[in-house]
Amino acid sequence: MLKFVYHNSNMFLQKIVLYLILQCIILYKFLQKIVLYLYDLLHNIIMKPSFYVLLGDVISSRKIKNRDKFQKKLINTCDEINNAHKNDIYAKMKIIKGTDEIGCLLTDISSLYEIIEHTSKRLDPNILRFVLIKDEIDTGLDSKDISKMDGPAFHKASRIMFSLKKEKLIFHMETGNYIIDSLITNNINLIYLIKNRWSSKKIQIINEYETIKDQRKTAERLGIAQQIVSYHLKSSNWKEIKEIEKNLKEIIMTYAKEAGT
Fold first, then answer.
1. Assigned domain for 254 exists
2. Rounded CA gap, 98 and 165, in Å?
3. Do 162 and 151 belong to one domain?
4. What is the CATH number of the domain that holds 172?
5. Does 148 lie in the same domain as 33?
6. Is the pLDDT of residue 36 over 80?
7. What is the mean pLDDT of residues 58-75?
């Protein structure tokens, strides 16, 4: 009888101990979640806000003959970008270094390719290289003036811009997603490796055609034969490039939406 009572008491104590251990484990996991939550909360409060720094650098700017005329063209182009994409821009695009460099601060990169494309077209035949970096801004953020700002994002952008000059590429982006960054970077570089080899005549014909959307009317506007328009569209792989650009814009839009959620 005593043995039976002793055995039952042991089992009872074992159950209590197991129950207490289980409760401790549950409590530990609960406290762990609270600690992680508080860490993330404090991290977000303490950390500086992150934005997308977009810098553009005019290649071989020293060879520009009429610098005053080019600077006016650059200012007008910046104004066009600011007006067209004001919902995505935190600090307006402006000249930040003579006639060599422009920059802006983006809150959203949905229109990234459109900004690069528009700037490149407006400043043709001059070529620009671009860098997009997502990182912290330490100084001047409240001013909303990119020329007064500084921080890790700008330091990284400057280093990468210097590397682009050596590599003879025109674009690089780093936003924290290596696969997407590489995909967009490589696509833009490949597109502009092709576009930058187009002759001024080919560019003129393509730009006119993109405006009118009709080969015959394009030919009449430029005073050339329709066959010449057709030849330049085919030899430039215009149709294929437009399809690649369309897909690229969709990728950027999708990534921008995911990054914003």
1. no
2. 18
3. yes
4. 3.30.70.270
5. no
6. no
7. 88
Residue found under tokens 């289980």:
22
Distance from C-alpha of 26 to C-alpha of 40, rounded to nearest angstrom: 21
* Edge-first strand listing for the sheet containing 89-97: 89-97, 101-106, 50-58, 128-136, 171-174
Euclidean distance between CA atoms 248 and 231, whole angstroms: 26
Mean pLDDT for the chain overall: 86
**Exposure class string for 212-232: b at 16+ Cβ within 10 A, else e:** beebeebbeebebeeeebeeb
pLDDT digits (tens, 9 = 90+) for 166-220: 888 999 999 999 999 999 999 999 999 999 999 999 999 999 999 999 999 999 9
| Rounded distance between C-alpha atoms, residue 53 and residue 51, angstroms | 6
Range of the domain at 227: 201-231
Whole-number pLDDT of residue 218: 94
Termini Cα distance of the chain: 68
**Residue 185 sits in the same domain as residue 209:** no
